[in-house]
Amino acid sequence: MSIALVAGGTSGIGLATARRLQQRGYDVHVTGRGKERLDDVASSDPELTGHQADGGDAEAMAALAGTLGTVDVLVVSLSGAEGMGPIDALDLAVLRRAFDAKFWAHLTTIQAVLPHLAADGSITLLSAITARAAMAGTAGIGALNAAIEALVKPLAVELAPRRVNAVSPGVVDTAWWSGFPAEMREGFFAQTAASIPARRVATADDVAEVVTLAATNRNLTGTVLEADGGARLVSLG
């Protein structure tokens, strides 16, 4: 059975992707930093195998990959909620922490798993619309997601015939927004749904469907797939 590893697969888009890969017949392993979320996955999705490991910990990720044998599909769905804010007040220490949590963790996971990745395997990364959209207050987090996307093309060439892609979501109703007051969050979702061409805020599974396509379609490589409901075509600022 082919093996899929979803780093950051205990919630949101990562968990939705893990479920879709399992439905396609993969033996799916997910990582998470917190035992509580891993316990939740063990209860809700016993067909998935959870591992407590930090994507930014090279030794832990390499050790885990070594126990799996050959990894056919690697999905890196690691993120954080920091790095936003106007440039004149942006705390650069917080932005560095955001880069550690996402960009450096993506890169660390790729390096750690690469020796165990199948010769025809795939790597799929998660960025976000802020990499290209011109929204005030997103210079920091936009640079972070742009850095993720900048990995895709050179790695697709360097690691060929392994495939490397990324998926760029727009506004998605996930736990990422849990730190915002409910009234603010709901108002923003309503405003977004009214303004973007898709006329709805995406679910985690909407994006997971695209991630699964990128991870499994043997003719896709070096591509950033935009799964943003058309948000990049309008102003969300």
UniProtKB/TrEMBL annotation:
The keyword Oxidoreductase applies. It comes from the Bacteria. Keywords: Oxidoreductase. InterPro entries: NAD(P)-bd_dom_sf (IPR036291), SDR_DHRS6-like (IPR051122), SDR_fam (IPR002347). One of its GO terms (molecular function) is oxidoreductase activity. The keyword Oxidoreductase applies. Belongs to the short-chain dehydrogenases/reductases (SDR) family. This is Short-chain dehydrogenase/reductase SDR. It comes from Amycolatopsis vancoresmycina DSM 44592.
